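Listing 4. Sequential folding, example run.
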Amino acid sequence: MSSGIWGWFGGGAAQKRKDSPKNAILGLRSQLDMLQKREKHLKSQMEEQDAIARKNVNTNKNAAKAALRRKKAHEHSLDQTMAQIQTLEQQINAIESANINRETLAAMQRAGEAMQAIHGKLTPEKVDETMEKLREQNALSEEIVSAITTNALGEAVDDADLEEELEAMQQEQLDESLLKTGTVPVSDQIQRMPAAANGEIKGKAVEEDDEEAELRKLQAEMAM
């Protein structure tokens, strides 16, 4: 029951206000169409009376005058009709422009309401606060990545040990290169000199032992 009352007093009235410009324009256009038809009919009547006047201008002056009189009446009616047509056209244009303005304003109002609904309680301060939080989280992420990539897993290797091993590898490569070319480094010559001397002494001792053994063997043979 209440919805019916609202549709009658509220919704019906609103719809009527909305349709009012449309109905007014339709009514004006219908009247304009009738006046345009009347304009065409009056012009036809004027042409007809003009032809009668021309036909009787020399033979029947009274008929010619009567025709001209009717032509003037039609001409007066035509002027009134054309003035009414002009007024109706202006009125139609005014209503259409007003209706367009109203619809444009209503569309702008709906757009404003939509923007307000989208923004809600959003304010520049809240935007700044959100952006600050995002910057903090980005900075934290960078710190975490830096901590993960700079702190390697396992024990750290001593640089001194690496340098010592590197020098040994370089010396080994140098020795191999010199051996291939037949050149002995000075350091190796110095190291090998005592070794050569020791070899010579050992050789002499071995030679002397052999001579003593040979001598004892000879003495034993002579005793026999």
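-- end of first protein; second protein begins --
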Amino acid sequence: MNAPELDADGRRYRGAAPGQRQRERRTRLIEAGTEAFGTDGYRNTTVTTLCAAAGVGKRYFYESFTDSEDLLLEVYREVTARMLEAIHLGSGALDADIDTRVRGALTAYFQLIRDDPRVPRIAFFEILGVSPTVDRAYQEVLDALVDICTVLLTPYLDLGDHPAVNTRMVILGLVGAILIIAQKWVLDDYRQPVGDVVDSGFLVVNAVLAQLAAAK
């Protein structure tokens, strides 16, 4: 019987194309980065540690990423994509009333943060102050959060009677408020129940919408 064919890491590769093997190694490195950055922290993690966790040699790390910061960016994109998806799915049907959609989006967002503490550690804390490139990625995600919230809220806003109000700036303020609530909740080790935190976020959103309606 012929021995199984192995790659340089001692893993079977018979039947797998080189591109597939590279994608698999990249996936393992992203998973290792998510775990390491989300538990030990980005600054406490080395390429050697990441390679050991992913089961790949260092040369394969540099096959996919230029350095650990490059991996951090990819991990950040993945965890924030999960956050955006949670908000989108949680907001529910387009024909639902605004209270139902906002509460659903907030519940899904905060539940994800509670269920996987790696997500907020990476998205809220490890990403800060790394480099200008990473700072730009943070701003891009902030813009994406504003975009998805704009899609959610704009159908329920009528700004025709006060055109000086910039809808995007208002929603940016709401996003910032929800982020601060989430960060404080994480730093307090999730002491408040999810429902209470959702109620706090909902109150902020509802207050702004009510104020806009009263300003007509």
